[in-house]
Design goal:
- The protein is 71% helix and 2% strand.
- The protein has a two-stranded antiparallel ribbon.
- Strand 1 and strand 2 form a beta hairpin.
- The longest helix is centred in the middle third of the chain and has 26 residues.
- The protein is globular.
C-alpha cells in the first residue's frame, strides 16, 4: 500500500512500478517474437494496443503464424481469458465508490498483474478513488505497449532465433506478485492447494479451464477456513 502524501490517497503510479519493471522484458520478448513470426511492427504493436493481454497475445501470434482460422483463434483466447471474470467480480466491490461511467474504460485495463497489485492495495486501505485505478492501469498499459514496440523494432535488426532468454520473465513476475499477497497460514495453504489442483486439472480440462476451476475451489476453501476459524 503506497499513499500519495500530498492528497492522502493511494498512488497508482508508485504501485505500478513492479508491474512496469516486469512488463519491460516480457513486452520486449513478445514484440521480438511477433516480428520473428512474420508479422509487421505495426501489427505487433496494434495487438498490444487493442488486445492488451500478454498470454493471449503470445497465443495469438503463434496460432496466426500457423494458419489457424479466426473462429478457433477467438474461442482459444476467450477460454484463456475466462479468469478475468473472476478478477472483475473481485474488484467490483471496490469500484462501487467510483462513478459508474469510469468502469467500462477501466475494465479494459484489468490484467493478472494489475489485479494482483490493486487487490492487495485495496484490501489494506480505503484511501482511493478513480485516480488510483487510472494511474495504476495506464502506467502498466503504457509500459506494455512501449516494450512491445521496442521489441518489434529490435526484431527487424536481430537475426536468428527469437529466443533471447526471456522465457522465464512472465512466470517469475506471477510468482513475485503472488508472494506479495500471501500472509498467514490460511493464504499459504490455499495458494499451495490451488496451485497443485490447477496442475492436476491440466490433464483433465482443455485450455485455461483448470485455472478457473482451481480458483473457484480455492476461493471456496478460503471461505470454509474463515468460517471454521470464527466458529472455533
Amino acid at each position: 500500500m503506497i499513499l500519495d502524501e500530498t492528497k492522502g490517497t493511494m498512488s497508482g503510479i508508485k504501485s505500478s512500478l513492479p508491474i512496469v519493471m516486469g512488463y519491460l522484458p516480457i513486452g520486449f520478448a513478445y514484440g521480438l517474437l511477433g516480428v520473428k513470426s512474420g508479422f509487421s511492427v505495426l501489427q505487433v504493436f496494434a495487438l498490444s494496443l487493442f488486445v492488451y493481454a500478454g498470454s493471449a497475445q503470445f497465443i495469438a501470434i503463434t496460432l496466426l503464424s500457423s494458419g489457424t482460422n479466426a473462429i478457433t483463434l477467438i474461442m482459444t483466447i476467450f477460454i484463456v481469458n475466462l479468469r478475468h471474470f473472476l478478477y472483475s467480480t473481485s474488484l467490483s466491490q471496490y469500484m462501487k465508490r467510483i462513478k459508474r461511467n469510469h468502469i467500462p474504460l477501466l475494465s479494459f485495463f484489468i490484467t493478472d498483474e494489475t489485479y494482483a497489485v490493486a487487490i492487495t492495495d485495496l484490501q489494506n486501505s480505503d484511501n482511493y478513488d478513480e485516480r488510483y485505478f487510472y494511474q495504476l492501469f495506464f502506467m502498466s498499459y503504457a509500459a506494455w505497449c512501449t516494450a512491445s514496440f521496442i521489441g518489434a523494432i529490435s526484431g527487424t535488426f536481430i537475426d536468428g532465433s527469437a529466443n533471447v532468454g526471456l522465457d522465464f520473465a512472465l512466470p517469475a513476475m506471477y510468482i513475485a506478485l503472488l508472494l506479495m499477497q500471501i500472509s498467514g497460514y490460511k493464504k499459504i495453504f490455499v495458494s499451495i492447494f490451488s496451485g497443485l489442483l490447477s496442475i492436476g486439472l491440466i490433464y483433465v480440462f482443455p485450455g485455461n479451464t483448470n485455472v478457473i476451476i482451481a480458483s473457484l475451489i480455492g476461493a471456496g476453501m478460503g471461505v470454509f477456513l474463515d468460517r471454521w476459524k470464527r466458529s472455533s
